């Protein structure tokens, strides 16, 4: 599963958004297939262990067809944990890529437009908004997708290496 970074207008922090690409890997041919919508991607991810994805689950797609996208370093790829809960109706899950590409932070946008960053904030919101009937704090997952290291841009890797050398030199001087 992948996404590439997209800058937002309100912040310089990249956000995985609707403009990014959601993909699933076929269990049979191992090719990556583009998934049209975040909701469809979350549905696949939610039940991936019970129902592994294969090309036949995508309309007009077979294993004989060329891959929709190739895994390479032309974009930053991330891998989500399997079987995470689907985002409850009315809420939206967003993932924000940290500046150093170390990980993505997951947030939820509520039906009222408020951004929530933890299960405690979710529980408080649900308590204050009883109209979200049938939704529990357990329906939200804040785990971070793993950034695939071989797809991190080279300039970021060089920045990290440079920062690590400075720290090591400083420790040696003490």
TrEMBL record:
Boundaries of every CW-type domain copy: 16-71
Gene Ontology cellular-component terms listed: nucleus
GO function term, MF aspect, one: DNA binding
Annotated SMART domains: MBD (SM00391)
Domain MBD: residue ranges: 77-147
Pfam hit, one: MBD
Keyword set, alphabetical order: DNA-binding, Metal-binding, Nucleus, Transcription, Transcription regulation, Zinc, Zinc-finger
SUPFAM superfamilies: DNA-binding domain (SSF54171)
Chief location: nucleus
UniProt-annotated location(s): Nucleus
PANTHER family per UniProt: METHYL-CPG BINDING PROTEIN, MBD, METHYL-CPG-BINDING DOMAIN-CONTAINING PROTEIN 1-RELATED
Official protein name in the record: Methyl-CpG-binding domain protein
Species classification: Eukaryota, Viridiplantae, Streptophyta, Embryophyta, Tracheophyta
Gene of this entry: 25479681
């Amino acid at each position: 599963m992948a996404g590439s970074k997209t800058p937002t207008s309100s912040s310089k922090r990249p956000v995985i958004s609707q403009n990014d690409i959601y993909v699933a890997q076929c269990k049979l041919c191992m090719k990556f297939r583009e998934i049209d919508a975040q909701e469809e991607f979350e549905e696949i991810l939610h039940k991936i262990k019970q129902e592994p994805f294969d090309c036949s689950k995508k309309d007009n797609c077979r294993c004989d067809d060329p891959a929709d996208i190739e895994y390479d370093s032309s974009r930053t790829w991330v891998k989500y944990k399997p079987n995470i809960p689907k985002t409850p109706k009315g809420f939206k899950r967003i993932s924000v890529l940290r500046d150093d590409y170390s990980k993505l932070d997951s947030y939820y946008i509520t039906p009222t437009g408020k951004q929530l960053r933890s299960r405690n904030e979710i529980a408080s919101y649900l308590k204050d908004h009883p109209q979200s009937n049938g939704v529990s704090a357990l329906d939200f997952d804040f785990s971070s997708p793993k950034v695939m290291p071989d797809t991190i841009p080279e300039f970021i890797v060089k920045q990290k290496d440079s920062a690590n050398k400075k720290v090591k030199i400083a420790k040696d001087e003490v």
